[in-house]
UniProtKB/TrEMBL annotation:
Residues 12-67 form the Release factor glutamine methyltransferase N-terminal domain. It comes from the Bacteria. Keywords: Methyltransferase, S-adenosyl-L-methionine, Transferase. This is Peptide chain release factor N(5)-glutamine methyltransferase. One of its GO terms (molecular function) is protein methyltransferase activity. One of its GO terms (biological process) is methylation. InterPro entries: HemK-like (IPR004556), N5-glutamine_MTase (IPR050320), PrmC_N (IPR040758), RF_methyltr_PrmC (IPR019874), SAM-dependent_MTases_sf (IPR029063).
Length: 289
């Protein structure tokens, strides 16, 4: 059977996704399918392709089947232990990079919590405004060894200088933030689980992704509240500017902003909208104390 015939006979998924799956099986670029449409696909290649098509039809994310996903212009390895990077999360990276650029003359310490595939800190590290004589440090944490293994591979792939730690949110790096020089700016990024159980159950497209990386208690805010609790001693004892960027569900904006104001009366908050006009990122800013 030829490439053209095989694709014509594939009813689901879409032609675009079918082409990507076949490229993966043939280890070829998309252009190859056009220029070699009359080439014969071997029995074993057909079998592998049809198996992938079946998995995709049953809801397995395309990125898991081909093993990678583009994010912020970079290609990242992903698997069933990591979330698939999403376009809306690029806003989080963009805002954090803008913040870093505004303080490019200061040492920057970036911390990504719940890093998963490592796409956020690696994308930041690859795009930072850096002066040769100003050091920049990137840390990332996660409670999944399997996810951290993927993150390590992605950092190596992109030669990113990110130090990964196993542990809960900021806990593994708090001691490293003591004794920083006065000319330092701390940036914390977080795309933590923020869906409710109901949201998870009602969204078929995410059923194959790790539930622990998607769902949180307390109407999806439990981990963000825990993160902010861990930030409290930093604000109290580290006399440095701190910026926290959190990706949220649009419906959580008012509640989480209210919680921030409750525990940080002096903290400044700002909501940023995604390309669909929905509140997607909450920034909390702490000036020097």
């Amino acid at each position: 059977m030829t490439i053209a015939t095989l694709l014509q006979q594939t009813k689901t998924p879409s032609r675009t996704e079918a082409s990507l799956l076949l490229c993966h099986v043939l280890t070829q670029k998309k252009e190859f399918l056009i220029t070699h449409s009359d080439d014969t696909v071997s029995f074993w290649q057909q079998r592998a392709y049809k198996r992938l098509v079946k998995q995709r039809t049953n809801g397995t994310p395309l990125a898991y089947l081909v093993g990678h996903k583009e994010f912020y212009g970079l290609d990242f390895l992903v698997n069933k232990h990591t979330l698939v990077p999403r376009p809306e999360t690029e806003l989080l990276v963009e805002l954090a990079l803008q913040e870093q650029a505004r303080h490019a003359d200061a040492q920057t310490v970036c911390i990504d919590v719940g890093t998963g595939s490592g796409c956020i800190p690696i994308a930041m590290q690859a795009n930072m405004t850096v002066h040769a004589d100003v050091p920049t440090v990137c840390y990332a944490t996660d409670t999944s060894y399997a996810a951290l293994k993927v993150a390590y591979k992605n950092a190596a792939k992109h030669t990113a200088r990110v130090t990964f730690f196993y542990g809960n949110l900021l806990e593994p790096v708090l001691h490293r933030l003591q004794g920083l020089n006065d000319h330092t700016h701390i940036i914390i990024t977080a795309n933590l689980p923020y869906l409710t159980e109901e949201q998870f159950q009602n969204e078929p497209s995410i059923q194959k992704e790790p539930k622990s990386a998607l769902v949180a208690q307390d109407t999806g805010l439990a981990l963000y509240k825990e993160l902010l609790t861990q930030v409290q001693p930093l604000v109290a004892h580290v006399s440095l500017p701190i910026s926290v960027f959190m990706e949220i569900d649009p419906g959580q904006a008012e509640r989480l902003s209210g919680y921030v104001k409750k525990i940080f009366p002096m903290g400044q908050t700002h909501l940023y909208k995604d390309l669909t006009g929905k509140n997607r990122v909450l920034k909390v800013q702490f000036s020097c104390v």
